[in-house]
Amino acid sequence: MSHSVAAGEQVSLDAVVKKFTSLLSATPYKEHDIKAITNAGLTLMKQLPVGRNAVLSYFGQRFDEAANRYLQYRVDKVKGDVFSANQYNEQAAYESLSLISNGFLSLITDPYWSLQFSQWAIDLLGHISKKLNSSNAAPLVTSTSTVEEKLELWMGCSATKLLIEIITSCFSVVVDKPSSVDVCVDKILEASIQYSPHFDWVVAHLGSCFPKTIIDRVLIAGYKDFISPSPQGSSKFSSAAAILNYLSGQHKTTARNCIISYYQNALNQPPPTAASAVTFLLNTLSLSNTMVPIITSDIGAIINVQMLNKLAAHYLVGAHDFCSWQSRMTSLRKYVLFILNV
Question: How far apart are CA 314 and CA 294, in angstroms?
Answer without folding.
Answer: 27
